[in-house]
Write a structure and sequence with these properties.
With 393 residues, the chain is an alpha/beta fold. Helix content is 44%, strand content 20%. It has two domains: 31-156 and 293-361, 3-Layer(aba) Sandwich (Rossmann fold); 159-287 and 375-388, Rossmann fold (3-Layer(aba) Sandwich). It contains 13 helices and 15 strands. A hairpin with a 2-residue loop joins β11 (352-354) and β12 (357-361). The radius of gyration is 23 Å and the shape is elongated. Residues 1-32 have low confidence and may be disordered.
Length: 393
């Protein structure tokens, strides 16, 4: 179509500009900008320095690898993906500021991360209010997806994993007397302890002692002395890898031969570096990813990740990698990079064959993943102990 009269041309252009401005005022903040331009931006949420950097560093690598692969295959909706990366240092204020900048300044189409429950909740509240999808690659605690319908996660949940692990502890290992140690200033730990206690009590296990520590402490002499005198068969520690390694160092110092069981908060390379022989085949934790006996999808990922970084991937690198691919798939299927559009497609995810396991979202957007992998440290590397299927009603 063309116009013979210049007046009509000017009028038509004016109408286009008005409608463009009107479109920019509707919906969530910056919705029209998220699908504009030659790139689709994804914001990384994670710590690459600080106490939880063992989660964020491999996560960032997994995210970058996925983006690189997708772009090499032509991108998403004919556009290249662009990762935006800032270090939140594991701090609530930092992640709030970064999330806000990603949304208002960078106009990201999705937020990938954080792997920690407490940090995810801070970012999720901001994302939900701005109608931007946040996809956590590790948050396992309660009260995450309940924040709103733009909040997703793709990790093995404690409420599904812990009962299976407790059954293994009691039935396969015969441990009847259990000690429990909680890190009081760690939200992951204070949330995980009640889940373990509920499962132990449901099986009539004998909790012989409960003790507490704090993240950042280095002297656990008193707690281990009490543990030694309790007669416990096994220790459940619900905190992170640093304190777990130091507790086991003290146990070795006191000649206490005991296994430590925990969640995927123990999945950090510093567990082996700090614990050395004290954690070798002594610390066992559950997670949703292992390099032993890999599926075809996981085997392909292992080959590419090793070639890219000359190191072994872990659960967080795998889950960030999967998160990018799942988001990209939802965008392609919905035909849009606008979170208000592709969110509904994302919520329909079923039997996705990811490198971190098969994932299905329930109606409440909670992920169901199976199996549970039990991991330990052997010769300084993470090694598979057992695989346990997850029963979910």
């Amino acid at each position: 179509m063309y116009f013979k009269n210049k007046t009509w041309v000017a009028l038509a252009l004016s109408m286009v500009m008005v409608f463009s401005l009107m479109a920019g005022c509707g919906g969530g903040a910056g919705d029209s900008d998220k699908a504009a331009g030659d790139t689709i931006k994804l914001g990384f949420l994670g710590a690459t320095t600080g106490s939880v950097a063992n989660y964020g560093i491999p996560g960032e690598k997994g995210m970058k690898l996925a983006i690189k692969e997708i772009n090499a295959e032509g991108g998403v909706l004919g556009k290249q993906l662009q990762g935006i990366y800032e270090d939140n240092k594991g701090d609530n204020t930092e992640i709030a500021n970064i999330t806000t900048k990603y949304i208002t300044r960078d106009k990201v189409a999705a937020l990938i991360g954080d792997p920690c429950t407490g940090l995810t909740k801070v970012a999720a509240d901001i994302a939900q209010k701005n109608q931007v999808v946040i996809f956590s690659s590790g948050a396992t605690g309660d009260g995450v997806v309940e924040i709103g319908d733009y909040v997703f996660r793709n990790t093995l949940l404690d409420i599904f994993a812990v009962p299976a692990v407790v059954d293994w502890m009691l039935d396969d290992q015969g441990w009847e007397k259990v000690a429990v140690i909680t890190s009081l200033n760690n939200g992951y730990s204070t949330a995980l302890t009640p889940v373990f206690k509920k499962s132990l009590e449901a099986r009539n296990a004998n909790i012989v002692i409960e003790e507490s520590v704090n993240d950042g402490e280095t002297d656990f002499t008193a707690q281990v002395t009490k543990l030694k005198n309790s007669g416990a068969d096994v220790l459940v520690f619900t905190g992170y890898y640093t304190e777990a390694a130091l507790i086991m160092n003290e146990a070795q110092k006191q000649n206490l031969d005991i296994k430590l069981i925990g969640g995927d908060g123990l999945y950090g390379q510093d567990l082996a570096k700090l614990g050395l022989s004290a954690v070798e085949e002594k610390v066992i934790f559950y997670c949703g990813f292992a390099t032993d006996q890999p599926s075809p999808e996981t085997a392909a990922f292992l080959e590419k990740y090793r070639a890219e970084y000359n190191e072994e991937p872990d659960m967080f690198s795998a889950q960030y990698y999967d998160a990018v691919y799942i988001i990209a798939d939802a965008m392609e299927k919905s035909g849009s990079a606008d979170p208000t559009v592709y969110r509904d497609e994302l919520a329909q995810l079923k039997d996705y064959p990811g490198v971190s396991g098969q994932t299905t979202f329930r109606a409440d957007r909670e992920p169901v993943k199976s199996p549970v992998f039990l991991m330990t440290v052997k010769d300084g590397q993470f090694a598979l102990v057992n695989k346990i299927p997850v029963e979910v009603e």
